Amino acid sequence: MPANSSSQLDSPRAWVVVAGAFLGAFVSFGVTYSFGVFLKPMALEFHVSHATMSVLFSVIAGLTFFLAPLTGELADQHGPRPVVAAGAVLMAMALTATARIHSFPLVVMVYGGGLGCAAACIYIPGVAAVGEWFKGERRDLALGLAISGIGCGTLVAAPVSAMLTERYGWREAFVIFGWTSGALLLVGAALLASPPASGAKLKAEIAHKLRTSSFAFLYISLMCSGVAVYAAFVFVADYAIDLGASRVAAAAIIGYIGASSVLGRLGLNALAPRYGLLTMYRIAFLILLISDGVWATAHSYPVLVIFGIVMGVGYGGIAAMAPAVAAELFGVEGLGELLGILFTGFGMACLVGPPLAGVLVDYTHDYKWPALLALVAAVLGLALVVPVRRQPAEPQQERAAGAA
User: Fold this and answer.
1) CA distance 44 to 380
2) CA distances from 300 to 37, 295, 355 (A)
3) Contact, 236 vs 295, CB < 8 A?
4) C-alpha to C-alpha distances, 34 to 52, 225, 251, nearest whole angstrom
5) Over 70: is that where the pLDDT of 185 sits?
6) Rounded to 5 degrees, what are φ and ψ at 136?
7) Tag placement on the chain: N or C end, fewer CB within 10 Å?
8) DSSP 8-state assignment for residue 100
């Protein structure tokens, strides 16, 4: 394949890249977002509080997004395949090694650090590659399909992890997840390839994009949505158990979030050409807000199921359209680095949301507080995404476009 031929855009080879990115998101986030299923058995074995276990999740998700600028830049320079392959090896090693650890500080280092570094190597490099293999409306569709791997992975991994934990215990479940995820991720890495016409990024142009007001609003609103989303992934299963649900039924709520997030990723994306990408992006934030209102008033398992389904649509739409919104607002040049920086907003959410929710639960012994925290965060996220606007091109960019 000619590496610099723009004729490869939107080609069948480009859709193979989408499949690779989908598989990477399926595995990495399926494993990561199953954390809520393992929270209680691990907390009981290691004799740690909800707040302490929430810190473990924050390490995983925080590293996933804080290392994303580095892994995105590495993928821009060397291609996504070697970066994702490294993530596959890291994830397999982290999960299988954690199954043999009996010290919680070591769990934080090996499971938290290893899984976080692995996911950072997988997600942004794959998504950025998809964004650069397509143009126009097909880019939005391709990104939506690739990122829908997160929802599909959550749908499958959460109930599977609950069943494995009940049958074999969480340690053996980690071993099974480790070998399976490593193999699948190596397949995903093999499907990826460097985008056509990829070139070195212009640091000055990236810096200009980061200084715009739209990037600031986009970043903070994404961070607020992350607080709402991660509070749910960590605590909604235990909330359901507190209401009398079985462990598998409680894990199923996380699966419902994943399943309906596919609808949000593909359905809201499909409406973007008709109603506008930014409009549908804001609607996704509104749906997330509505879902958190349902969670905050839930008193039964069926209501929590409704919450999971509605939240999945909003969360899925936000996750799917955020890369497309960034590409539309700022262009695809240096998209890997730009998305890496943008998604550190999720990393900030991980540092704030789950630990704060865990402290509230430990202090009040009431799982309603994570829902209220998510509701406040969703309100702020919607308020901050409204002012986001497309940025005018820099004068030198306009001259270059005219010359082209």
Assistant:
1) 35
2) 19, 10, 25
3) yes
4) 17, 19, 8
5) yes
6) 65, -145
7) C
8) T
Please list, in sequence order, all residues whose beta carbon lies within 8 angstroms of the beta carbon of residue 183, skipping any fewer than 6 positions away. Answer: 92
Give how far Cα 260 sits from Cα of 34, 181, 195, 266, 367, Å: 16, 23, 30, 10, 23
Give, in order, the Cα–Cα distances in Å from 123 to each of 66, 206, 238.
Answer: 12, 20, 27
pLDDT digits (tens, 9 = 90+) for 9-56: 667 788 999 999 999 999 998 998 888 788 888 988 998 887 788 788
CATH class of the 13-196+203-389 domain in this structure: mainly alpha
Contact yes or no for 227/291 (Cβ under 8 A): no
pLDDT at position 217 over 50: yes
For residues 383 and 248, the answer to whether their CB atoms sit within 8 Å is: no
Q: Cα separation of 196 and 198, whole Å?
A: 5
What are 132's two structure tokens?
Answer: 């650069």
Look at residues 353, 27, 8, 309 and name the one whose alpha carbon lies nearest to residue 179: 27
If you average pLDDT over each of 48-62, 259-273, 300-314, which comes out highest? Answer: 300-314
List the chain domain ranges. Answer: 13-196+203-389
Q: What are phi and psi of 388, to 5 degrees?
A: -65, 130
The owner of tokens 């982290």 is 94
Tell me which of 199 and 29 has the higher pLDDT: 29
Q: Report the C-alpha gap between 18 and 259 in whole angstroms.
A: 19
Amino acid 100: pLDDT: 93
Q: What is the dihedral of CA 69, 72, 77, 83, to 10 degrees?
A: 120
Pull the structure tokens for residue 313. Answer: 């649509």
Q: What does the alpha-carbon distance between residue 268 and residue 285 come to, in Å, rounded to a whole number?
A: 11
CB atoms within 10 A of CB 376: 14
Q: Which two tokens stand for residue 67?
A: 């290392």
Where is pLDDT greater, at 111 or 402? 111
